[in-house]
Amino acid sequence: MEARACDLALYIIEHEATVRAAARRFGVSKSTVHKDLSQRLPAFNRPLYLQAKAVLDRNKAERHIRGGNATREKYREKRRRV
Prior knowledge:
The chain is an all-alpha fold. It is built from four helices and no strands. The protein has helices at about 1-15, 20-25, 30-45, 45-80.
């Protein structure tokens, strides 16, 4: 589990990935990613945890923008088909 937590953190840092993307890439649930990063990782690798947390916090702050862009594209596609 420690190795998976480190691998998840490194993937998120290197790719600036979301929790959802990391979960998909490693074949685990979003809950597992959260638990690995928020509970397991700080116990044995605090510096790596802080780097991953910074990326996740930035993704969380930008989440509403990505959602708005996705909705805009959805309706643009509908208009193009009509």
